[in-house]
Design goal:
The chain is an alpha/beta fold and 271 residues long. The protein is 41% helix and 11% strand. The chain has helices spanning 3-9, 11-25, 30-33, 70-73, 80-89, 92-106, 129-136, 163-166, 187-193, 206-219, 241-252, 259-268; strands at residues 61-66, 110-113, 172-173, 198-203, 223-227, 235-236, 239-240, 255-257. The strands form two sheets. It has a six-stranded parallel β-sheet, sandwiched between helices. The chain is globular. 40% of the residues are buried.
């Protein structure tokens, strides 16, 4: 039996691993603390990669927010023990609200790409490493694709402060993605139907769903700017997810902005 089987089948071991991961997130594991300090995320003083030339264009720009859900972004969420420090470190909850507010003020399309699991998804015959974790802790679980029983306030529900923006009858809520990227849902279709080809990307979590959305959207021909302080990643003994994603954002995305710059650019497309 491998480690993943043990994790999935032994609740005591699962709890111990998640507790250890939470300790890492709190900086209790001295051997990794230095790699997790904010200075590790600073931009290089002498960057070798070319500067971004991405500019937002009126009528061609949208905000895409991945997984703005309780299980990632609230203390009662099942993933908080491993992502909570990173979420707080980058002020992700507030920064996502700033992006929602700016997009609505500029009247640009907003697409939410949620992560939901239905009872039939728990019948999968195999999963990747973190799929096993998510399924074992019932992350993003819903009663069914047509059943909203128990959804309100659940881990799969959207964070309360975002609901006025998401439920304004203008925001597009895409069909759920099931692993990390948007290959199985209709985010790409919804953007194309809006004639969008410039995407501002934010949400959770950085090296998993956000990075996967970035890669797939770029493969589909979109220009993608990732908002680096409107995402966060897990900190576990295996590594710092946010740091891993930040390196890839710099190497792959068309642009990497902070929330302040993204908001200014969004509001500038009003005219």
């Amino acid at each position: 039996m491998d480690n993943n089987d043990t994790f999935s089948n032994d609740p005591g071991r699962r709890a111990a691993i998640l507790a250890a991961a939470g300790a890492v997130a709190a900086g209790a594991v001295a051997g990794t603390a230095a790699a997790q300090t904010p200075s590790a995320y600073a931009d290089p003083p002498n960057p070798a990669l070319p500067r971004s030339t991405m500019e937002l264009v009126r009528g061609r720009t949208a905000l895409v927010v991945v997984d703005p859900q309780n299980d990632f972004l609230t203390e009662r969420g099942v993933a908080w023990g491993v992502v909570g420090e990173s979420v707080r470190e980058h002020d992700v909850v507030a920064n996502l609200e700033r992006l929602f507010r700016a997009a609505k003020a500029a009247d640009i399309p907003v697409v939410v790409s949620p992560h939901f699991y239905f009872p039939t998804d728990h019948g999968w015959k195999f999963e990747g490493t973190l799929e096993r974790v998510m399924h074992s802790i019932k992350m993003f679980d819903r009663a069914g694709p047509l059943n909203m029983a128990g959804f309100e306030g659940s881990g799969a529900d959207f964070v309360d402060i975002y609901k006025p923006y998401i439920f304004d009858k203008k925001t597009i809520i895409a069909s759920p993605h099931k692993i990390y990227g948007p290959e199985q849902n209709d985010v790409g279709l919804q953007l194309r139907k809006q004639r969008v080809d410039h995407v501002i990307l934010a949400g959770m979590s950085s090296n998993l769903c956000v990075e996967s959305h970035m890669r797939e959207l770029m493969e589909q021909g979109f220009e993608v700017a990732v908002v680096r302080d409107a995402t966060a990643g897990a900190k576990v003994p295996e590594g710092d997810g946010y740091l891993a994603s930040l390196i890839n954002f710099r190497m792959v995305a068309n642009a990497v902005w902070r929330t302040e710059e993204a908001v200014a650019r969004i509001l500038a497309v009003r005219s």
